Amino acid sequence: MKTHWLTIGAMAIAATAAAQQPPPRVVTDAQVVAALKDPNLGTEDMINVVGPATALPPHTLQPATLAAITQKIRQLNRASAARGEATYKGLIPAPPEGNESNFETLVSLVTVLINQADVAGLDGIAECVDMGNTPFWALVGHGEDAVPALVRRASNGDVDHDAGKVLKAMDALEQMLESPTISSKLSPRSHAAIKRLAADRMKTLRGDKNWRLFAGAAYLAVATRDPQLREQVERMNDNYKAFSRQGMGLEAQRKASALIQQALDKFN
Q1: Can you give the pTM of this predicted structure?
Q2: Whole-angstrom Cα distance, residue 162 to residue 152?
Q3: What CA dihedral angle connects 8, 11, 13 and 16, to 10 degrees?
Q4: 43: nearest Cα among 85, 94, 100
Q5: What ranges make up the beta strands (E) of the chain?
Q6: SS (H, E, C) 23-89
Q7: Which of 152, 185, 182 is nearest to 169 (CA)?
């Protein structure tokens, strides 16, 4: 691996530039909450308030503020889902190319929660678990503390609109179980909650459109290393009649079974 070194002159220039930068603006809990509650605040104004909060040290903001951020994230996600559905149905025109809608605001809000490293913000991060590697691995890294938030995110919601979040929440839990360091530190209660989630999702995820979510639930079930769950998945794997009972056809069976076999091989 190559190591890149700064010359003394370059280091001096960088230090001078950093010294000339204005100090980050400090924002308070009250300012953040007020911005979140202001229905007339545009994206740019919201980011101007929330942006500086991303630089606050961990555990600076109060749990109530983190809860308000979580509520705002859910509100923005619901609004985005509603716009997407209305666009799909032709009720409203598609947004202009490059229009990121609520994305920038969501990134700022979830970054605040990640940097605060507080259990009170984990539900909000879980609402953005499908927004890239940063929130995903932040949740995995929290281990035990993040299990309840991920289980809730994977259990709740309309899979028609939240499929990505449900799948990524299950994937994050699977990554915890795959890591010997994290898995060994999970409580019996967390292991039991993950097993219940996997079993429930395998029962309730039906239809061809849910083949990927079903495969994710089966993958998670195998990752728990529970003998009964593994046996259930083995009976299901590549079984036409079993997939038919789930309302899935041959193509869904083929694609889901390929992923399920990977799990069976990995956790053998």
Answers
A1: 0.86
A2: 12
A3: -120
A4: 100
A5: none
A6: CCCCCCHHHHHHHHHCCCCCHHHHHHHHHHHCCCCCCCCCHHHHHHHHHHHHHHHHHHHHHHHHHHC
A7: 152
Per-residue pLDDT tens digits for 44-78: 889 999 999 999 999 999 999 999 999 999 999 98
Task: Give which of 104, 121, 114 is closest to 47, Cα–Cα.
Answer: 104
- Give the Cα separation of 61 and 139 in Å (integer): 19
* Nearest-angstrom CA–CA distance, 93 and 100: 15
**Position 76, amino acid:** L
d(CA 113, CA 109): 7
Work out whether the CA dihedral 252, 256, 257, 259 comes out positive or negative.
Answer: positive
Short-list 155, 91, 98, 143, CA closest to 117: 143
Task: Fill in the amino acid letter for 134.
Answer: T
* 101 phi-psi bin (left φ>0, alpha ψ -120 to 50, beta other): left
Q: Angle at Cα 87 formed by Cα 84 and Cα 89, nearest 5°? A: 110
Tokens of 23: 């100090």
- The string of pLDDT tens digits covering residues 214-261 is 999 999 999 999 999 999 999 999 999 999 999 999 999 999 999 999
Residue showing tokens 């309840």:
148
Show Cβ contacts of residue 19 under 8 Å, excluding neighbours closer than 6 positions: none
Tokens of 30: 């009250």
Residues counted in the chain: 268
Structure tokens at 159: 């899979």
Residue for token pair 């509100």? 75
